[in-house]
Structure prediction request, 555 residues.
Amino acid sequence: MAAMPDFAYSDLLPLGADPTPYRLVTTEGVSTFEAGGRRFLQVEPEALRLLTAEAMHDISHYLRPAHLAQLRRILDDPEASPNDRFVALDLLKNANISAGGVLPMCQDTGTAIVMGKRGQQVLTAGGDEEAISRGVYDAYTKLNLRYSQMAPLTMWDERNTGSNLPAQIELYATDGDAYKFLYMAKGGGSANKSFLYQETKAVLNEAGMLAFLEQKIRSLGTAACPPYHLAIVVGGTSAEFALKTAKYASAHYLDSLPTEGSPVGHGFRDLELEQKVHELTQRIGIGAQFGGKYFCHDVRVVRLPRHGASCPVAIAVSCSADRQALGKITAEGVFLEQLERDPAKYLPETTDEQLDDTVVRVDLDRPMSEIRAELSKHPVKTRLSLTGTLVVARDIAHAKIKERLDAGEGMPQYLRDHPVYYAGPAKTPEGYASGSFGPTTAGRMDSYVQQFQAAGGSMVMLAKGNRSQQVTDACAEHGGFYLGSIGGPAARLAQDCIRKVEVLEYAELGMEAVWRIEVEDFPAFIVVDDKGNDFFTSLTPSQTFVGSIPVRSRS
Prediction:
């Protein structure tokens, strides 16, 4: 009989020192007092509200310096494809526009997520969640952000809350005399790429794990706006803990974990496997949305303890809108992570030489038959510049148009005459033609395409991410096209490409209305053509990219 082990304790996720640079927000609302031989920190609700409002503002407009440096690295890498570099440059331009504090970096300004750890020597008046929620409310109602939260009225009926509340707030008790926070804004596209797989010990070997991960990573596609910060968690004391750990890891919150395991059972980072998975993501050829090397900026792999009969594997990503910041309240004041307010320093001095200037200009104000004839001349992955009229419609508008078709009514003429852009704008700032107005995930509209194209509409679609086989089949049958827009640069599109916005139909739907917009030099790529070709399905497991030329790996 084995000897009973001695008691030993470790945090499940033991973090090291915090190297984060912080800026002082205020010294108001914070005080200390002595009692029972200990010093306590007293935090007023206003400090919680202000810190949260500041955090939600900053993560909507600014990025971490490390993330911006990774974008610049793509421009400087001779192995990056022209499409990699084009996407990276567009994202850097977007970051510069967003840093002006008017247009948020992404039109999907996300669900507000706040995780807090309150030390045992921190006292508040109670109602911390309410004060934090008030900060979220203030940020979303006062800034040019979008309201995305739907309140369920019945099981089937729901209504937008009009304030982006409720927020997801999770507060924990811990040791110490500080109140520490992680603030996140998680858009639907990125959140929808969180996955849990219930596996077995069979994946707990390098060959089996890499084969499993390659299949799952390919299935991520580009709908969540790569290049990604990819996180993988193997193991977990529960399924939900594995998923939560993956979310934190994708935000680099767990970077200071140990890099080796121990019999005590704490989590750790596997740096060797991180490197191998990163190399795998570079080989598969998806790249920064339209072919190349940079599907991911980096990879985090966390190994957790597990029940012997359970082996959860969780995958999560943080997208090009890499929106998170740390905050803390101490005796010295209220502090927020210092994000980069001058992203221009990451732009190259000259950009023309760094990009492939082969681009097909498409006049969207020609008849639809002529637009399709022009697109039919070019292969998938061709870079386009669109100028003219687009119709904007997404989930709810598509459902309403389907109801009309099912009732025997015809396809609206605007969907017959113009390409359809799947998108939903953020609020329009004063003096601007549009608020941030980037593409939404195309896959949510897949089920409508066959019926709409058969009725003469949606012959040219524009959005982000990969589509299902039914879309490829419909385009081949009806002569349609799906164009991919760069996911991420919503502020740049609003400032530089969108010249006019007006409601066409369903004004009562707000952001979900049908819009007519006029665009100029709007960037796009051919993803699915009228011949049954799909860029994403053309990638093979052994394909890699050198420059812009796909080659076969000899390994």
